[in-house]
């Protein structure tokens, strides 16, 4: 098991995104021809034949609305894949961090209680994937200002998951 809990997009937000995404566009589901789409609803790769949607998601904006933070210009949105219909969410037996494969590049971006970026780092996922992520999160949360960490893909900037201070 990992030292930190990756958080999926919550079901109520998924319901909203399946109607209209965070960019104000309607959802357009499709059937996946290939597998591997990183699904933010259940934190696993999609399978061929599943009904998916690519939607615009603003994780910091939604967190700020729930906490009263004001991220200002740090608010951003980007593409994420989700199931087109409700799913069971993450497998509680899943171990490790989602979408981690040795050699992949991730940004580990840190935010304070106001929703402002207070640092970050590039992580090349090591062979011992969980240890690499745990070390990056230990480093991030060693700063008492950090309350939230976002993990994104370097190549496309896609949001993968978040971790919060307990």
Broad shape: globular
Distance between the termini: 16 Å
Low-confidence stretches: none
Radius of gyration over all CA atoms, rounded: 15 Å
Sheet with most strands:
4 strands, antiparallel
Q: What fraction strand?
A: 25-35%
Instruction: Report strand order across the widest sheet.
Output: 7-6-8-9
Count the DSSP helices: 3
Structure description:
Helices cover 19% and strands 28% of the residues. It is globular. The chain is α+β, with helices and mostly antiparallel strands. The chain contains 3 helices and 9 strands. A hairpin with a 5-residue loop joins strand 6 and strand 7.
In brief:
With 166 residues, the chain is an alpha+beta fold.
How would the blueprint of this fold be written?
Elements: H1 11-19, E1 30-31, E2 38-39, E3 44-45, E4 51-57, H2 59-67, E5 78-83, E6 105-111, E7 117-124, H3 129-141, E8 148-153, E9 159-164
Antiparallel strand pairs: 1-4, 2-3, 4-5, 6-7, 6-8, 8-9
């Amino acid at each position: 098991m990992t030292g930190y809990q990756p958080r999926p997009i919550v079901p109520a937000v998924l319901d909203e995104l399946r109607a209209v995404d965070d960019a104000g566009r309607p959802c357009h589901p499709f059937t996946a021809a290939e597998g591997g789409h990183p699904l933010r609803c259940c934190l696993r790769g999609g399978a061929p034949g599943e009904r998916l949607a690519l939607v615009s998601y603003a994780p910091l904006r939604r967190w700020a609305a729930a906490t009263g933070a004001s991220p200002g210009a740090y608010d951003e949105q980007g593409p994420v894949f989700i199931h087109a219909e409700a799913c069971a969410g993450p497998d509680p037996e899943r171990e490790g961090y989602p979408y981690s494969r040795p050699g992949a590049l991730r940004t580990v971006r840190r935010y304070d209680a106001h929703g402002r970026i207070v640092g970050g780092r590039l992580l090349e996922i090591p062979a011992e994937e969980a240890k690499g992520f745990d070390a990056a999160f230990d480093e991030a949360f060693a700063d008492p200002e950090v309350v939230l960490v976002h993990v994104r893909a370097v190549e496309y900037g896609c949001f993968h998951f978040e971790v919060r201070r307990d």
